[in-house]
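Thread: quick sanity check before group meeting

JM: Hey all, I'm pulling together slides for Thursday and realized we never actually wrote out the predicted structure for the chain we discussed last week. Dropping the sequence here so it's in one place. If anyone has concerns about the input, flag it before I start.
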Amino acid sequence: MKSLIQSLKMILAMTVITGILYPLFITGIAQTLFPSKANGSLIRINGTIRGSRLIGQKFDTTYYIWSRPSATGYDPNPSGASNLALTSKALHDQVEKRTLDFMNGHGIKSPVLVPAGMIFTSGSGLDPDITPYAALLQVNRVAKARHWDAPKRKEAVRLIDSLTQKPEFLIFGNTRINVLLLNLELDKLDHPNGREPSGSR
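JM (edit): ok, ran it. Output follows.
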């Protein structure tokens, strides 16, 4: 009986320490030292949340830089890949359609010029980044939709260069640019106070 009581006391103590005190302690540190990251790296404009730096959103109109395709429809709850094999006809059809859509939307004559990141989904299905090359290919389309003159097109190219992120410690990851951040900055070229990006626009 004594051993049972001691065991129950130990379970209760460890539950309080590891299940309550430790999480509260870590949460307190995170909220104090890294509040933005602890709350999901959210982007707010004029007090309104526009999205997260870490989660891709759907941008598929002429007005914005397109996002990387998502196997989950950009829904963060069932995050994951399509799990389609290289021999899958469904995957082949998806890639073919995305390739043709990108080529037609940007005046590209050869499929080999289409960035892989614009036709294949990521492992998470929520990759918020594309390559600078993929972004630069889309500038003329966006400029035409927004009726930009040559100076604004050059400014858009400059924005892509300034927002490009290098690999972490120069070795981890790839050179990339965050689509949401870029589209928010492109909006500012038209409206200094910013405009809410809308994938359905």
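AS: nice. DSSP finds seven helices and four strands in the chain. The mean pLDDT is 87.
JM: adding both to the slides.
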